[in-house]
Amino acid sequence: MSRAAAAHGGIRPSPNIWDHPHVYEQENLAFDRGQQIEVAIGELHPYAAALVLDIGCGTGFHLPRFADRGARVIGVEPHPPLAVMARERLAARGLGLAAAVLVAPAQALPLPDSSVDIAHARWAYFFGPGCEAGLTQVARVLRPGGLAVVVDNDATRSTFGAWFARFHPTYDPIAVARFWRRAGFSQRSLTLAWEAADRAEFESLVRIEFEPDAADLILAEHHGTSVDYAVNLWYRQY
Asked: What is the pTM for the complete model shown?
């Protein structure tokens, strides 16, 4: 366990959204504007009448999107300030009574056995090698026939993937893929994009995802307001 994780009760901090939630909101809006990920999940399991659990839901950005597709939603978020923002989002959308946000880590999901239809996690740090405790919890709370979906970076392709591989040299995409396959997950590759409103917004997104020196290099080499962005959708039906 890292020193930072130990200081937060075993939860690894997520500096982009923890430290910059309002910029991260812009990043959520800029990423996958066509909601291809939501469409892909719906092709694997219908949303109608399903209970969707968003693990590491942050400010709850994706909860209304799932609700708009006919699902009931629950968010679980370990960082209390973000959970407050997620609840405020649900209330503003009139979903306060039909949805919930709980404060808890993925390693201890506060839900009954066999109670969830779709478990979704996007950029959640407990996934990948070392996240076995979280996956055990996912398996526990999913109903028979339920779907687990993990959205992760694909560092083997796309411009953003090349940035990720270049500036996170210890990340081993082959080892990560092996981990998911050993855990019984299948892979679906998607090519999406960041599409920022303007250059200033694009620069702010880069700067919350990369260290300052890396961000300077990226921004010097890449012009414009968008970038192609590859992801892996890892999924398993239980």
From this structure: 0.92
